[in-house]
Specification:
single chain, 268 residues, 10 helices, 21% strand
Length: 268
């Protein structure tokens, strides 16, 4: 297996970040990236810039080859549509967190057995401990509201050793270990996520999208503006054995064609 080490991909557009990452892995001699970082620095307010039409070919391929489209993956990190409904009903963030864990999470487990171990967002709002679940996001926002500015306080854990540390040959959840939020300058928020491993074709775009949505939510609650999301990965691969470089290369080309169409329409 041939690796490329210490690759950093940085772009001001979510689509460009994913494409540049995938193109490293479809190169003829490369099977994985180690100690890899994807860095997004382009935001409109706290929303990530992207080429929306370019995501459609990727979602079409993901629906065909699995496991789910980019939005479904993003929802595991931050359920944006559920938060929009909760806010429209007048719920506070704390009420939304509680509703997700007590009402939505059981439904997600019933709908898909892959959610049996939980979701990333559920680990953030109900981290399992021997003393009961800990709502990490509520604690962070509470610290911020009380004036705490110690940077090391603003991190959330996903990986739980007493549950997740085992020797089984495959573990679909969790690949994301933890997230750190850092205030930069006066009003900016920088977010860093750490993955032990990541499937670039199957999950990465949705991971990036979900992280950006989580960052936008936290920035709004903290009165800051999200300006950067960095995703640090121990080992990045395209996906499972059925995901071939030729197939991913075709998706990349379709996405680039869609991007050129978007650019032409904007210029017209």
């Amino acid at each position: 297996m041939t690796s490329r080490r210490n690759i950093v991909v940085e772009a001001a557009n979510l689509t460009d970040v994913w494409l540049a990452t995938a193109e490293h892995l479809v190169a003829p001699s490369v099977n994985q990236l180690t100690h890899f970082e994807a860095r997004l620095v382009g935001f409109d307010g706290s929303r990530p810039d992207e080429f929306p039409s370019a995501r459609r070919p990727l979602d079409d391929a993901l629906r065909m080859h699995g496991p789910c489209d980019t939005n479904a993956t993003a929802n595991l990190i931050f359920p944006e549509s559920a938060w929009a409904i909760a806010r429209a009903r007048g719920q506070s963030p704390d009420e939304f967190f509680a509703h997700y864990h007590t009402a939505l999470m059981p439904r997600l487990r019933r709908q898909d057995r892959r959610n049996g171990g939980g979701t990333y967002f559920d680990r953030m709002v109900a981290y399992p401990t021997s003393d009961g679940p800990v709502n990490q996001l509520a604690k962070l926002l509470g610290y911020w509201g009380r004036g705490t500015r110690r940077q090391s306080a603003f991190q959330v854990l996903i990986y739980q050793p007493t549950i997740d540390l085992h020797g089984r040959p495959y573990m679909g959840f969790p690949c994301l270990d933890y997230i750190a939020f850092t205030r930069e300058g006066g009003r900016n928020l920088v977010m860093s996520a750490f993955y032990a491993s990541q499937l670039i074709f199957e999950r990465a775009f949705g991971n990036y999208l979900g992280l950006c949505r989580l960052g936008a939510f936290m920035a709004e609650q903290m009165g800051l503006t999200l300006v950067q999301v960095s995703c640090h990965v121990g080992v990045a691969t395209l996906g499972g054995e059925k995901i071939t470089k030729a197939m991913v290369g075709q998706v990349i080309e379709k996405m680039r064609v869609s991007m050129r169409g978007d650019i032409a329409r904007k210029a017209a």
